[in-house]
Amino acid sequence: MAKGKIPPEFLVERDDYKCVRCLACVRLCSYGANYYDENAKRVYTENRKCVGCHFCEAMCPTEAITVMRNPFEIKPLAHWTSEHLIDIMKQAETGGVLLTSMGNDRPYFSYFDRIVLNASQVTNPSIDPLREPMEVRTYLGRKQTKLDLEEDEEGRVLLKTEIAPQLKLEVPVMFSAMSYGSISLNAMLSLAEAAKTVGTYFNTGEGGLPKELKRYGSNMIVQVASGRFGVNVDYLNAGSAVEIKIGQGAKPGIGGHLPGEKVTEAISETRMIPVGTDALSPAPHHDIYSIEDLRQLIYAIKEATRYEKPVGVKIAAVHNVAPIAAGMVRAGADYIVIDGIRGGTGAAPKVTRDHVGIPIEFAIAVVDQRLREEGIRHMASVVVAGGIRNSADVIKAIALGADAVYIGTAALVALGCHLCQRCYLGKCNWGIATQDPKLTKRLNPEIGARRLVNLLRAWEHEIKEILGGMGINAIESLRGNRDMLRGVGLHEYELKLLGIKPAGEAW
Amino acid sequence: MIGVRKILIREEYCMGCKLCEINCVAAQVGTENLIKIFRYVPELPEPKVIVEEHDYITFALQCRNCYDASCLKACMTGAMHRDPRTGAITVNEEKCVGCWMCVMVCPFGVVKRNLKKKKVASKCDLCAERGSPACVEGCPNEALVLIEVRE
Q1: Measured between beta carbons, which residues in chain B are less than 8 angstroms from residue A190?
Q2: CATH code for position A438
Q3: Is B22 at the interface with chain A, CB within 8 A?
Q4: What is the pLDDT of residue B85?
Q5: For site-directed labelling of A224, which of A196, A269, A336, B121 has its Cα 20 to 30 A away?
């Protein structure tokens, strides 16, 4: 039987007139796609090896290289697209699960793109953020139900209630959990330094805490996932908050697997497992089979951290997200994280990444609504993640009911990532999703941190600009303020779930 | 004491792309257009910066412009001299007799021979003409940084 020949995904076109034979592309491609022919004195590319990361294109000093999608497709039909056919061919050949990386790659409807924002006209004044103070600071953590005040002898009013531990965010954007192992130390250092400069938080992910990051404790959230890698009491107390990871938007319901080859000396030290052994994160936490079990773990961690740090719980947005979130808040979570279907990953089965979960826009709206209805919205902050691309998405997420957002993919793109979706191969040319010392040194954390700070500052400016236009001077006044949102081209039931009015309908 | 400009090598960020070598050649030829240089300049000069490689350790090495420079001491004609303006050590080709003592004594091996003219061929002068060194400007990962040291 004939084998289907899988066409190369990309074509690397090289303008031979412009090529100066510097061989940077040959030297730098970690996939070995480019090669130099001594006899012909020309550089060639094996297109089949190219993953489309655009690194050679970016490094070429004369812009001689263009990486493009191969226009050749296997006779594409409406239902049986080229992608589907190639996937079938790959599986017919290997018999395995198709692996992939980064976020969902199916063209699901983007509700963020169908929501428009309000601005002040005549009846209320807009605010110029360059001339008037604009508050984008926010606090994450449990808020008190009521505040008890008392007066001292001199008549001064004092706060009697003890305030629960809070995370102070100068911008409502944090860097989401990416573990040491899935990304390089230089990538983590970039995130940490940027979080420190801007006054927000990065997350260690489930891979433990490399010693180089210990000094960033005041801007760090430490994660406890099902593998419990590197978790001990020092780890729990090293950061500003602890996050229990139940699920991840890219792969709800399944665990993780860091192949043994990637468990180097440094990784083994931080993960506290032997060198060369597979790091397996089980699908569930084997001690959490119910909300009551979750409560036990939350309070075990709170005890271990002497009730000084907020404890959060992260789940993937799934069908029953609202009641689950309510259960998490009642179990004692100080903040909850909801990761939508577009959330990214270092490695996941393609079928899970592309088909499991619900869009984050609905999850934010229903979770916020449910917590309000139960009267427990103040008991936990809501952080959302999964496909936040720009400041408009941040504003829409907050107006739908979030307190802050996590960005992962956007942060990696700022570090150089071109979303080639090959993180699972560990050969990232940009030095991000790799542990190869030859590749990790390509990411200079000074440059990385500078670019991330720029990104956050740019978003901060834009958020202030939009808030000013709405006539609002604090991000806290935007939270859950769905009157600032209107839907365009959405069905009635979608509008109802999102809790917003259609465009054109007045208040 | 004047400030001495130096190129700081950061081995930990050098990815070994060797673009510094290309940019050095371009700076010597005196144009930014690499394609023009490659196509129409018949004899390309040697780069004055060399990327040293061993496994994953790579770094670009050029003249360190030592404070206590052996090449200055070894030069019998005074061809090798310190540029008072930039603090960089420069070779005056008219005075150079090609004894290559500087090549012998350089602890970094960055002074190179010109076999054709029997002179000292390449000696980084921190791009005195250009202002800032081309290798530093062109480094995509800031593995080369220009610093000023007061000694």
Answers
A1: none
A2: 3.20.20.70
A3: yes
A4: 77
A5: A196
